[in-house]
Design goal:
This protein has 265 residues and is an alpha/beta fold. It is 47% helix and 13% strand. It has 2 domains: 1-75; 94-231, TIM Barrel (Alpha-Beta Barrel), CATH 3.20.20.
């Protein structure tokens, strides 16, 4: 299970202020704490809402430089802007995660070309102009992205489809739709999966309890990676335990290492 640490995201007030004020110490601390907690990738989103691509390019370069100077972990360049993504990939090189592509007109082919050029694992969202509410609608978009990726020369093994977790506080059956979508994704040869986990619990109390429980359901269905807050110790412990019980941790090696490192309670 690949863990992508989500905390360097300008949608959060403190991160946004740190980016605007060039507070490298704050960004470095977030990178280090996530790395120490066991994150495999550090996601970097610098969209402060200024609306200027040139400024966001410079923000991304600055943030990536801070992260690279702090931790020895690969990054996930998180942006909807082609120029920002290109700059991030040029800086970080082959194998950098792309977060994310979708099927919006004018965006998919250009992003896939960068994914091919940099051999990047890529989060793929089954979205066009809106999010399909039902499984079949999401799979129609998956079909479109897979065909475009095949045509572009992107390896299917680099495609990490997100089955889309929507808040159960809005639709009490949304988690079931997500799980069924994940199950059906396994019908596509070679592709992998990921998920923005915390969306499922939005608007509800005790969110970590919901997130942790949902994560175990997803793991049972074969989820390959997760975008989440690795500083939630209970979440990381659940993943380590889940890997043991699903037979994904030979000799319980990762579980025992996590225990020695204080990740398990």
């Amino acid at each position: 299970m690949i863990v992508i640490g989500e905390l360097i995201n300008a949608s959060g007030k403190k991160v946004r202020e740190a980016i605007i004020n060039r507070d490298g110490e704050f960004i470095a601390s977030l990178a280090k704490r996530q790395s120490d907690a066991g994150a495999d990738y550090i996601d970097v989103n610098v969209a402060t809402g200024s609306g200027e691509t040139s400024g966001e390019v410079e923000d991304m370069k600055w943030a990536l430089d801070v992260v690279a100077g702090t931790v020895d972990k690969p990054v996930s360049v998180d942006t909807t802007d082609y120029e920002v993504l290109k700059a991030g990939l040029e800086m970080c090189g082959e194998g950098t995660f792309i977060n994310s592509v979708n099927a919006e007109k004018g965006r998919l082919d250009a992003f896939l070309e960068l994914a091919r050029e940099y051999n990047s694992p890529t989060v793929a969202l089954p979205i066009r102009e809106s999010i399909p509410e039902e499984v079949e609608g999401r799979l129609e978009v998956v079909d479109e992205i897979v065909k475009s990726a095949d045509k572009s020369g992107v390896s299917r093994e680099n495609l990490y489809f997100d089955p889309l977790a929507l808040p159960v506080s809005v639709d009490h059956k949304s988690a079931l739709v997500t799980l069924e979508t994940l199950k059906r994704l396994k019908e596509y040869e070679g592709v992998k999966s990921t998920i923005g986990l915390s969306n499922v619990s939005y608007g509800l109390p005790a969110r970590e309890t919901l997130n942790k429980t949902f994560m175990l359901f997803l793991m049972q269905q074969g989820m390959d990676s997760v975008i989440m807050n690795p500083l939630q110790k209970g979440m990381m412990a659940a993943i380590k335990a889940g890997n043991v019980l699903l037979g994904n941790d030979p000799m319980c090696g990762a579980y025992l290492k996590a225990y020695r490192n204080g990740i398990l309670s």
